[in-house]
Amino acid sequence: MQLRHMPFVLGLIASATLAEETVEHRPMPSYVTSQIVLPVSCQVFSERVFDGLQPSKERLDAFYASSGFVSATEGASSQLSPAYAEQEATALYGKEFFKNPANKDKIFVHFMGQAIRSSYYMARGAPLAYGVTFAIETNSTGLKGCRVEVQTVSSKVFAGKELNLHAMGMIPSAKDVPRSPVDEYRLLVYVAHLVGVKIKLVE
């Protein structure tokens, strides 16, 4: 490396040190859960989810507009982030997920690789950008009952900046984190809504 570049590189390294963020999380409300038994068959539930977790439907749904996921993109403070549901036969983003035979009957939910604003993780009192994918597992409890569980497949936050020499600058720093129970619950609230069941909203 030429010496004339050294001050620039040292400056970037110093900036990287200053850009670290402490990841925190909000207290978890007592009502938060990742599963619920809904009064419909699992077939009906799955049909409603595949039909409802689509951008065109979510943008027209007043419930999603008020309680759905929000984009974490800078300057998009109130822009909805559509959730997509995929199944094994037609998966695009979920191809790797469905390579595991244990996942073949689950529903894969993603945001096309975009970060959402977390309802759980924060830094300096502000919500963090959260990169997450979910799975929904269903199990029948009878002719008119379906146990639904939301599971986290991948979970990372973008907290602060990190040095990237290829970009010759600072880029968002991704950190793997444990599942966010509150964001799992937000998805559970919406899929319950799709079959006409109302449960407590995240406050």
List the helices and strands and how they pair.
Blueprint: H1 6-18, E1 24-25, E2 35-38, H2 42-52, H3 55-60, H4 62-67, E3 84-86, H5 95-98, E4 107-110, E5 116-123, E6 126-142, E7 145-164, E8 169-176, H6 181-194
Antiparallel strand pairs: 1-5, 2-7, 3-4, 4-6, 5-6, 6-7, 7-8
What can you see in these coordinates?
- It is a single chain.
- With 203 residues, the chain is of the alpha+beta class.
- The chain has helices at 6-18, 42-52, 55-60, 62-67, 95-98, 181-194, and strands at residues 24-25, 35-38, 84-86, 107-110, 116-123, 126-142, 145-164, 169-176.
- It has one domain (3-194).
- Helix content is 27%, strand content 33%.
- Strands 1, 2, 3, 4, 5, 6, 7 and 8 form an eight-stranded antiparallel beta sheet that branches.
- The longest helix has 14 residues, at 181-194.
Work out the helicity level.
25-40%
What's the Cα radius of gyration? 20 Å
Count of folded domains: 1
Low-confidence stretches: 12-18
Query: What letter string, H or E per element, gives the SSE order?
Result: HEEHHHEHEEEEEH
Oligomer: single chain
Tally the helices: what do you get?
A: 6
Biggest β-sheet description? 8 strands, antiparallel
What is the residue-mean pLDDT, rounded to a whole number? 87
Shape descriptor = globular
Q: Structural class of the helix and strand makeup?
A: alpha+beta
Distance between the termini: 53 Å
Q: How many beta-strand segments?
A: 8
Strand proportion: 25-35%
Question: Main traits of this protein?
Answer:
203 residues; alpha+beta; 8-stranded antiparallel β-sheet; 33% strand; globular
